[in-house]
Specification:
It contains 21 helices and 17 strands. The protein has 543 residues and is of the alpha+beta class. The chain has three domains: 215 residues, Recoverin, domain 1, CATH 1.10.238; 88 residues, 2-Layer Sandwich (Phosphorylase Kinase, domain 1); 185 residues, Transferase(Phosphotransferase), domain 1, CATH 1.10.510.10. It has a six-stranded mixed sheet with strand order 4-8-9-7-6-5, covered by helices on one side. A hairpin with a 3-residue loop joins strand 5 and strand 6.
Amino acid sequence: MGICTIKNEKKTINSSIPPKKKKSKITFRETSDNLFESTTQSTPNSQEINIQSHNSTPKNKMLVSIDSNILINHNNRDPNIVYSKEKVLGNGSYGIVYLVKNKQLNKYFAMKTIKKNDKNKKLENTTLINEIKILKSLDHPNILKITDFYETNTEYNIITEFCKEGELYKEIKSKSPFSEGLSAYYIREILKAVCYCHSNNIIHRDLKPENIMIFKKRNNGCNIIKIIDFGTATVFSEEKRENMITGTVQYIAPEVISQNYNEKSDLWSCGVILYNMLTGKYPFGGDSQEEISYKITRGKFDIISHPWNIISKEAKNLVCNLLIVDPNKRLSAKQALKHPWFNIDKVKKFLKMNELSENKVIKLIHNLINYRSDNILKSAVIAYLVHNNSQLKDYYDAIKLFNQIDEDGDGKISKEELLNGLQYYLESEGEKLQNDIDLIFNNIDTNHNNFIEYEEFIVAAIDKENLLSKNCIQFAFNYFDRGCTGEISLNEIKKLFYCNEQNKKDYRAREQLEECFKEVDVDNDGHLSFDEFYNMMKSILIF
């Protein structure tokens, strides 16, 4: 058994996309009808692409916001009207998890059902509501997405994405030790989600492979993962220390045992997971919880025995920097994402397999440029359809581009990151380039918080044609038709959009919402029929 020691090495961080000579560039020239003609000039080995892009300057800046409160609404309908139960996925002390199929979309989701009774009363008031609140607030490709929440007289029903490939735990148990490349891929995806949570002041408090699901398997091994189970997660502040012991003993940090901890406890759990992937073993074992807890508080673990003799010094260094007993010396998620291990050759070669081809990047960037949010109703419907259709054909390519542009891995794109990510592909330079980026950014940032979040990016980047089948449009219509009357009233739209407090308070946003409604209410009767709604959405495809 060896004691892990840390060397204070100076770390060089590659914090931005290196400048490249432009091989492909998108140029714009103004034509008639306020259009921009866009041509992509490519290298001989690349496909030439020509598009036309609408002038993305809106008549007036859109002030109405779209957020999760609009897309995920508390619903009192019977979920069995919308979903059919296919089979039981799991049973717990508080309820049952079902595989369900959305009857309209013909797609699968998971539904957690919890009965209302005295036994579950404490859960209803704490864990359940806490999990719903936190999941609604989080928007990240590696965090399980909640799509619906139903409450009837007898039960609660939470609808989420369905992760059909099972737990990461099973992968580790059957295939570990992983290569350094695969371990680096998984831990980087986990760290990105943790970094995002911490930037939103949320500690997960129960990170472990059993709470990391494989959403989609890929041939190259770079499987898409989702972190689940935010029932014990909590909001933190710099001034506040947590004292509740929670989590699974093999993964909890020493300061959790001491009942005096903060968000750095999640990084200890990440260290345990990384150790487990690299070796197939736990750093702190034992025959009882007491024995494991004692070893954790001492912080001594084996980093000498096989397979550590064939593992790089950079991987060892990251493990040791995550499993430091003193949380003040432990790496943060943001620091861990910049660790030199991710830049050594064998890791970089593996991670490079997950990159997009240039033609795919250009296609997605064309969609970003063409996206317009000048009618907030159209934007909200597209956002709702994207939120409920994470199995779309180009969804995963858009996630890869999002991750490529999100330089610091915090799960959101700043204007500076968008500039750095797109300037290689855009012909414009200097002030014109900055103005182009401003227009693209403002069109995509539909909640107006000065960042482009994951789903906002996906909404803009994917091909809208894949979303606008009659079936999908009917699905969206049913959601916005809150009274199930077969038509959508202005009051229903107001009530839904006013779930966002800023929309309710800002009289200019209220006026814009009414204007957008009138624009698509062709017969001016104060209601949207399905035909009006359908034509509104189909107009997105007409340039």
